[in-house]
Amino acid sequence: MKKPRTMPFANRVAGVFGILIGGTAYWMTTSFKQFINVPVGPEVFPQIMSVALILFSAILLVQSFFTKDRRRAPTLSLRDKGMQRMLMVLGIVVLMFLLWDTVGFLILSPLVLFLLMTVSGARNWATMIILSLGITIVVWLLFWKVLVIEIPLGPLNFIY
Amino acid sequence: MNWDLLLSSYAGVMADPRTVLMVFLGAAGGVFIGAIPGLTATMGVALLIPFSFGMDLVPSVGLLLGIYCGAMYGGSISAILIHTPGTPAAAATVMDGYPMAQKGEAGRALSIALFSSFCGGIIGAICMTFLSPLIASAALAFGPAEMFMLAFFGLSVIIAISGKSVVKGLMSAFFGLLIATIGMDKTCGYLRFIPKGVYGLYEGIPFIPALIGLFAAAEVFSSVERIARGEQSSAKTTLKVNRVLPSWADIRTIWKNILTGGLIGSFIGAIPGAGGDISAFVSYGVAKSTSRHPERFGQGTPEGVAATESANNGCSGGAMIPLLSLGVPGDSVTAILLGAFIMKGIQPGPMMYVDKLDTVYAVFAALLLANLAMLIVGMAGIRFFTKIISVEKKILLPSILVISLVGAYAINQNVFDVGVALVFGLIGYLMQKYEFPLSPILLTLILGPLSESNFRRFMQIKDGNFFSIFTHPICVVFMVLSVASLVFSVFNQRKINRLGTESGDGEIPPTQEG
Amino acid sequence: MKRLVAVVLLLVLALGAIGVASAADYPAKNISMICPWAAGGGTDATLRALSMAAEKVLGKTIVVENKTGGGGLIGHSAIALAKPDGYTVGMITFELSTYVPQDTGDITWESYDILCRVNTDAAALSVNTAWAKANNVFDVASFVEYCKANPGTVNIGNSAPASVWHIGAGLLAQTADIDVKHIAFEGAAPAVTALAGGHIEAVSVSLGEVRSQMEAGNITVLGVMDTIRPAKYPEIQTFQEQGYDVVYGTWRGLALPKGVDPDIKAVLSDAFAKAVEDPDFIEFMNNSMLTIAYQNAEDFSVFLAQNYEDVSETMKALGLSD
């Protein structure tokens, strides 16, 4: 068991991330196309912003060495139950995104809702099934009939 | 001012049952559309335009204004209840509205939002009726230089919305400004940071999917995590909804915020290209700077909700000014309204105040009526809306997540945007976890492109002579205001840090941000 | 074995029958219409009005889907990639001619089965009235003269980089051999507002966009890049009349994904040809200052090929493509 990380440590990591993001962005702007007759080119704003991001990230980094803050940082450990649940939720919705067009809303949404409810801790199966189907159909009909937005239905697309 | 005509036009509108019906239908639809993230007033108005073809001018304009005003308030419902601004204009309402709901004061927050929206809307309508010629001439004075300085002024509230750590707030802000430059640049058409073919990012990061990700998805992720760890109860949130309008005591604390918010909204709304989102943030910054309790902002203070909601609804009246008196639409909704007028053979513009004064007054009356309709619909709905969060968390959270993703899809009808929402959900989740405020990202995603494109446009017109900006009086005024705002917020931050621990505002909810 | 062959034959026949039936019964269900631009814009308004007229002919509902973003690339791609069953139609717009020259996308008019052209709107050159009076600018010639006397100082606003109005202004500069600055705004309306406020000197957007400011007297229209004078404002001269051979503007048309059954295509062609003549549609277009300019698939394809060539050339001259 590693010793718990403190908030200043987390800030240090965040500072390094900020510097990396800013640095990469700045490096990318150096290869932007140069335009003639344009006093402020497309590279100027991103450059200013990335320098500022690097600057404040550095300040956060430096601050983290001089603070008396000893609060524990929130964990990202995969052994943590909360993290596991959160990643499951993320995984389910990423799957929903990937299958959005091919499987379609009417099939996908009840499954996703049911799984998400299970992950969130619901166990009253009958209610969950009814709600998953009910919410899906209400949302779908609302978008289709009232807002005239056709959410892809995959194999069921013939309904439209 | 032709008082007889004014009164007779008002009476004509209020007495016409068809107009009243249309306005109420519009307001009810608008509240609903506004409350669902991903559905915007623009979409609602565009959908209903074909139905208004067959109607007379006043009822059809009434219908559209009803949607416009209703959606402005509707956005605050989801902002307060589920941490997701239903419209960009309600983005600033999250900062205090959601913490209020977390404290069990959802009903109070909603009633304050509703009352402030109504008052803001009325202030906007009054400004429109009486100050129109005055403000209209100012609207044309806003060129690229002035728009740039307005955006800069808007950015000066970042410190005020940064929360506990100003450094982290500024990091969020500059991260937002940096990612706001992704996509095709608006001056040269050059693709920045993305390869050819990623069409979904050509026009920049799609704003509403990003907003849905940062707020709705991120909040669901972290709630699930906390519930699993037992840090947050999965039971329903307890509610006290005794009233649908704020108490007298509340009104006494917030009336100043409502008045300034309404005026800020009316004025910023009158500037073409600036709307409810900017005015709400500016009003929030002003309210915090002038408050005797700046430390309560971000923890769920009625003043914050009142300031933002009065400002964004004041905009609807303000936006009518350039529309009617100049024929210049200030945002996408008024652009559609302009089309509706032209369809009826009425060309808004200076001549309208000479030839068609009765129509102008009828529009004013319809706007007042629309605000009234919004108030009545809202009052009737508060008990119903608050029921939403009295649903058990393990049922509520999955539903919010799925409906939000559908909303993210709906805005462009593009699956790519669902992916954007998820990426921003993850970013928002991590940022919230490590105490980086999210509101600065939202503000900078709105103001970054506005400031960049106007700055570059200005530099192009002036051949790169930046210092000529000092010859624009409006720019100088905004410069002074920006400096004042920055100084105030730094001063305020000191005060807050000093008071920090003594704050007697009750328990700080773990999810509060900003 | 015989049985199997019989079954297969039957199946083939059955499938064929379905195929035939689908062409004969077309349309059997609602049709979706992809609009590459947002609800509330000019393209969306045109498409919705046209759809309402076409519904009367086809007897089915037409659902408008605003697939927006990517400067129209998302919607334009969605039309090309849709299932070619005749139940997805799309509106294509001028921007289609710019994607390949600007190297932002890979689709051109050749990616579709072209159906018809619906509308064209000519570019117009408009100037700030006060500025024009002060500098004695009253027609295209005097504008060109002023630009020659003051090279690189006149700002002409347009709706976006590489937009139709940007290219229109570029074409004018090329033809008249003048040195002007092209200022991109986010849409035509902000450019017109900036012109009315005197922040720029001219804009090159369509007459419909400047009409209200023209009637208010803030803006003066010097000429339209059209072959005929505008019906509603016959006092406005064309560029050709003023000695500048510039005819230029935006267009909107309908297209199908490649591979649609020719019979179905014929049904749609007829339906939209009729829809364009619907009195409600005509009234809508007139009121919105949009010009109906119907062309059938053949003529429209010739037009598109020419337009693509012209646009690529001007974009090169403007430095928008390599």
Task: Give structural notes.
The complex is a heterotrimer of chains A (160), B (514) and C (322). With 160 residues, chain A is an all-alpha fold. Chain A has two domains: 7-66; 81-159, no CATH class. Chain A has five helices and no strands. Chain B is an all-alpha fold and 514 residues long. In chain B, strands 1-2 form a two-stranded antiparallel sheet. In chain B, helix 6 (106-140) runs parallel beside helix 12. The longest helix of chain B is centred in the first third of the chain and has 35 residues, at 106-140. In chain B, 70% of the residues are buried. Chain C has helices at 2-25, 42-58, 73-81, 99-102, 129-134, 140-149, 164-176, 188-196, 207-215, 262-275, 279-287, 297-318; strands spanning 31-35, 62-66, 88-93, 112-122, 124-128, 155-158, 181-184, 202-203, 219-224, 249-257, 291-296. In chain C, strands 2-1-3-10-4-11 form a six-stranded mixed β-sheet. The longest helix of chain C is centred in the first third of the chain and has 24 residues, at 2-25. Chain C is elongated, with a radius of gyration of 23 Å. Chains in contact: A-B, A-C, B-C. At the A-B interface, helix 1, helix 2, helix 3, helix 4 and helix 5 of A face helix 8, helix 9, helix 16, helix 17 and helix 18 of B.
Largest sheet of chain B: 2 strands, antiparallel
Amount of beta strand of chain C = 15-25%
Overall number of domains of chain B: 1
The dominant shape of chain B is globular
What are the low-pLDDT stretches of chain C, counting only 5+ consecutive residues below 50? 13-21
Structural class category of chain C = alpha/beta
Largest interface, Cβ cutoff 8 Å: A-B, 68 and 64 residues
Q: What string, H for helix and E for strand, traces the elements of chain C in order?
A: HEHEHEHEEHHEHEHEHEEHHEH
Number of distinct helices of chain C = 12
Fraction of residues in helix of chain C = 40-55%
- First-to-last CA distance of chain B: 45 Å
Mean pLDDT value of chain B: 88
Give the helix/strand class of chain B: mainly alpha
Oligomer type: heterotrimer
Strand arrangement within the widest β-sheet of chain B reads 1-2
Q: In total, how many beta strands of chain B?
A: 2
What is the fourth-level CATH superfamily of the largest domain in chain C? Answer: Bordetella uptake gene, domain 1
Label the CATH architecture of the largest domain in chain C.
Answer: 3-Layer(aba) Sandwich
Please, what is the average pLDDT of chain C?
Answer: 89
